[in-house]
Amino acid sequence: MTDGLGVKEDVPGFPMTRTCPFAPPPEYAELRETEPISEVRLTLNGRRAWLLTKYEDVVKVLADPRASSDVTHDGYPLFMPVPVELLKAMPRILFHMDPPEHTATRKLLTPEFTARRVDAMRPSTQEIVDLLIDDMVKQGSTADLVHKLALPLPSYAMCDLLGLPREDREFMHSWISRLVSKEMTPEGHGMLQMEMAMHMDEILDAKEKEPGDDLISRVLARNIENGTNLGRPEIITLIMALVAGGHETTANMISLGTLALLRNPDELAQLKANPSVCRDAVEEMMRLFSVSDFGTSRVALEDIEIGGMTIRAGEGIIASMGAANHDPAVFTDPGTFDIDRSPNRQIGFGYGMHVCSGASLVRMQLEIVFNTLFARLPDLRLAVPFEELEYKEASFIHGVIEMPVTW
Ligand code: HEM
Question: Between the chain's N and C termini, which has fewer beta carbons within 10 Å?
Answer without folding.
Answer: N
